[in-house]
UniProtKB/TrEMBL annotation:
Keywords from the UniProt entry: Stress response
Database matches in InterPro entries: A-crystallin/Hsp20_dom (IPR002068), ACD_IbpA/B (IPR037913), HSP20-like_chaperone (IPR008978)
Domain SHSP, first and last residues per copy: 27-138
Gene3D superfamilies documented for this protein: 2.60.40.790
Organism: Roseibium polysiphoniae
Family: Belongs to the small heat shock protein (HSP20) family.
Protein name in UniProt: Hsp20 family protein
PROSITE patterns: SHSP
Length: 148
């Protein structure tokens, strides 16, 4: 019997309580460039950090539409051609997509030290939030006996 690898689900979904419901969208051939982390920063907050060394803010696009977060990077044409002897820093164009849950929205994005940080927040409507139900104590009933 084959063992199923669910790691692609963990890498491309944010804010889902039931990741296995997305089995049909799992893609084991997912691209690995650029590398990224997904972290939980609070009870309802998340952060995606993507290593985009060499990209400027003008080279990056972050778009959220219909439960899909898309990050694109495309270098602007360099003014002068350089004679590069060895290219170890990748600067190729990329497009990375993340499935996000229904009540997760992008709060903001910023570029710092070659890392693109995208902050997400999950905001459940009041009707969807769990609520505590008070248990009322009833007065004990007394059994009446009839005397003859």
């Amino acid at each position: 019997m084959r063992h199923l690898d669910f790691s692609p689900l963990y890498r491309s979904t944010v804010g889902f309580d039931r990741l296995f419901s997305m089995l049909d969208t799992a893609n084991s051939d997912a691209p690995s460039y650029p590398p990224y982390n997904i972290e939980r920063t609070g009870e309802n907050t998340y952060r995606i950090t993507m290593a985009v060394a060499g990209f400027a803010e003008a080279d990056l696009t972050v778009e959220a539409k219909e439960h899909v977060l898309t990050i694109k990077g495309e270098k602007q044409e360099e003014e002068a051609e350089r004679d590069i002897l060895y290219r170890g820093i990748a600067s190729r164009a990329f497009e990375r997509r993340f499935q996000i849950a229904e009540y997760v929205r992008v709060e903001g994005a910023h570029l710092e030290h070659g890392l693109l940080h995208i902050d997400l927040i999950r905001e459940l409507p009041e009707a969807m939030k769990p609520r505590k139900i008070e248990i009322g104590a009833s007065s004990p009933k007394q059994i009446e006996t009839k005397s003859h």
